[in-house]
Amino acid sequence: PELTIIPLPSNLRVDQCRLCMADDLIPLEMSLCEGQANDALHNLHIHLCNKAILFQTTVRQAKSQALKTQAWSQVTSVQQAVSLHASIYTRTRKQMI
């Protein structure tokens, strides 16, 4: 299902779009893309703030090697979320251009 291409105007050629009378779907798809980009930016902001707080409260204050390892594993998991939302934003932005 994730590999299925949805027949949105951005996935169709211009002549196919006119043939299917999908011209009025273009503004709707653009608003969906804007919403997805805004959601990705919001989530990116939240996860970057979480990462900064983790550095300030957990990583810097860890005294032992075990605590530092745990702190860095938390930072790594937050970084994965940051990378995910950054790639979502990049793909959505590219689609809007």
Structure characterization notes:
The protein is mostly helical and 97 residues long. Helix content is 75%, strand content 0%. The chain is built from three helices and no strands.
What share of the residues does DSSP label as strand, in percent? under 5%
Number of helices: 3
H/E element string? HHH
Q: Which geometry do the CA atoms define?
A: rod-shaped
Largest sheet composition: none
Mean pLDDT: 87
Which bin fits the share of residues in helices?
A: over 70%
Number of strands: 0
Distance between the termini: 26 Å
Low-confidence segments, given as residue ranges, are: none
Whole-number radius of gyration?
20 Å
Main structural class: mainly alpha
SSE topology sketch:
Layout: H1 14-19, H2 25-59, H3 65-96
Helix pairs in contact: 2-3
Task: Describe the structure in brief.
With 97 residues, the chain is an all-alpha fold.
List keywords for this structure.
97 residues, mainly alpha, 3 helices, 75% helix, 0% strand, rod-shaped
